[in-house]
């Protein structure tokens, strides 16, 4: 079907020449909010100038996803899937920067599109596969520039940040104990005494992280120390980071971390120490360099480091009151003859770190007794398992997919019945038939796309074989059963009175 404008320009109907307009923004920063609108406007202008019918439903978007990470871009995966099914004839991009910023990904996308007869257009570069033919050099050059852009930008930003550091300026979050004046760190005399107190307790009094945390929370109530910036109570991890942070000795470490791409995804790793840029006397020190080095010397850290008891339920036990993990605490009792009896029991990690300021104390549950009880309970449950083993997340998604498939089948049946209404019963006109058929076909495509996108999302899958293997492993009582417990248990909620709530990763 062809439509005509008043100026007699022939407009190609979208249903006869389906296309997609792809848009993407890397972040959700304010300056990029209008970027999607800008991309769509530019693509719409091209569509209309080239006599194609504009269709709002042709737009597919990836929001807040980097162009260097192909696997996380669900909309791009939809573009490729529809290309493979030959459901589209053209894909439009504002620029190759929107298509991809990794040259390998850009070339792969292009090959998939062209192999399935899909026309590829990038407006800013003036690239159009319909006219370029097999000339790949132009596309490869623009792809190379697009790939180089984030690297060049990263180098420029790194250089600018390094220059700021050399000038004594601060970059990054403001550490507790400091304030900013003229872009430089200055000691905050209101909070700095708390930092000095932490190091005194650690170095001169010999207290560990846990004891210091408890003392901080007690002294905070009395008004003798300041509360942490982001939380109402001090945590062990906060104290540990302060002790290990060279910033408090006037030292700034730059280029400690970098981001790399592994299997299509980004990951932050620590650079080798020789790549670190260490600036001493960068800003006023709250403690001396000697104090910081002493606090982080092997002699001190080894003395304060205790080996925690091995916990086969690590990450699986949750406190009912605060949601923190339950951990194992070791204790012992010395007898008159010199021997000692040791035992392990469960305790809320928040209570262990901060005492009554963190949570409440639970009734002691001995680890061995708890382990034996859990083993018996799970093995008993295992005998009753009859249906598929699927976690809740996967089940929810499958229910949604099943519902969409039913809707799709219903619409397909209605579409088939429409043909009978027109051809056999003659109850509707040809025009009514064409309009309704187009409506049904669009709805079918929309449902198909939603099913595809749901299948593309990451999900935690636990198959039947792995769960059956986990049940077998539980019978080997003497082995480390952490993997088996993790496979079968979502979490176990532990109440102060010793009551337990089990949440499994399978259903009966």
Automatic annotation (TrEMBL):
Keyword Nucleotide-binding: no
SUPFAM superfamilies (alphabetical): Resolvase-like
Residue ranges constituting the Recombinase domain according to the UniProt record: 175-306
A GO molecular-function descriptor: DNA binding
UniProt cross-references to PROSITE patterns, sorted A to Z: RECOMBINASE_DNA_BIND (PS51737), RECOMBINASES_3 (PS51736)
Coiled-coil region list: 394-457
Pfam families the UniProt entry points to: Recombinase (PF07508), Resolvase (PF00239), Zn_ribbon_recom (PF13408)
CDD domains: Ser_Recombinase
Resolvase/invertase-type recombinase catalytic domain sequence ranges: 18-168
UniProt keyword terms in alphabetical order: Coiled coil
Protein name: Recombinase family protein
């Amino acid at each position: 079907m062809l439509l005509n404008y008043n100026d007699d320009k022939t407009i190609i109907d979208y249903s006869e020449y389906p296309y997609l307009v792809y848009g993407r923004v890397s972040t959700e920063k304010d300056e990029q909010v209008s970027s999607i609108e800008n991309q769509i406007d530019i693509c719409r202008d091209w569509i209309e100038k080239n006599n194609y019918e504009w269709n709002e439903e042709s737009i597919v978007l990836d929001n807040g996803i980097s162009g260097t990470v192909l696997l996380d871009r669900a909309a791009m995966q939809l573009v490729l899937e529809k290309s493979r099914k030959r459901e589209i004839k053209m894909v439009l991009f504002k620029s190759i920067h929107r298509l991809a910023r990794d040259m390998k990904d850009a070339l792969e996308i292009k090959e998939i599109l062209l192999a399935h007869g899909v026309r590829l257009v990038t407006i800013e570069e003036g690239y159009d596969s319909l006219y370029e033919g097999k000339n790949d050099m132009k596309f490869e050059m623009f792809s190379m520039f697009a790939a180089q852009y984030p690297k060049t930008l990263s180098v420029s930003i790194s250089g600018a940040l390094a220059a700021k550091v050399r000038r004594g300026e601060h970059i990054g979050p403001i550490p507790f104990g400091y304030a900013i004046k003229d872009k430089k760190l200055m000691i905050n005399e209101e909070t700095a005494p708390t930092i000095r107190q932490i190091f005194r307790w650690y170095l001169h009094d010999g207290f560990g992280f846990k004891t210091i945390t408890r003392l901080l929370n007690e002294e905070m109530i009395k008004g003798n120390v300041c509360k942490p910036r982001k939380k109402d109570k001090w945590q062990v991890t906060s104290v540990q980071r302060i002790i290990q942070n060279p910033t408090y000795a006037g030292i700034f470490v730059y280029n400690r971390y970098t981001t790399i791409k592994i299997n299509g995804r980004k990951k932050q790793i620590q650079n080798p120490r020789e790549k670190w840029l260490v600036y001493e006397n960068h800003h006023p020190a709250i403690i001396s360099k000697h104090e910081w080095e002493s606090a982080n010397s092997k002699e001190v850290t080894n003395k304060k480091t205790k080996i925690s008891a091995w916990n086969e339920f690590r990450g699986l036990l949750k406190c009912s009151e605060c949601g923190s993990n339950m951990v194992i605490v070791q204790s012992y009792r010395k007898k008159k003859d010199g021997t000692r009896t040791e035992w392990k029991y469960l305790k809320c990690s928040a209570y262990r770190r901060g005492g009554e300021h963190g949570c409440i104390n639970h009734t002691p549950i001995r680890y061995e007794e708890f382990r034996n009880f859990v083993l018996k309970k799970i093995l008993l449950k295992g005998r009753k398992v009859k249906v598929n083993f699927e976690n809740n997340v996967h089940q929810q998604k499958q229910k949604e997919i099943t519902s969409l498939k039913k809707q799709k089948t219903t619409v397909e049946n209605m579409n088939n019945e429409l043909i009978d209404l027109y051809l056999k019963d003659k109850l509707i006109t040809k025009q009514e038939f064409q309009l309704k058929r187009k409506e049904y076909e669009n709805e079918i495509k929309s449902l198909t796309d939603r099913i595809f996108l749901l299948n593309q999302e990451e999900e935690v899958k636990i198959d039947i074989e792995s769960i059956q293997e986990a049940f077998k492993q539980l019978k080997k009582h003497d082995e480390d059963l952490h993997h088996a417990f993790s496979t079968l248990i979502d979490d176990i909620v532990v109440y102060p009175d010793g009551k337990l709530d089990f949440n499994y990763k399978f259903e009966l």
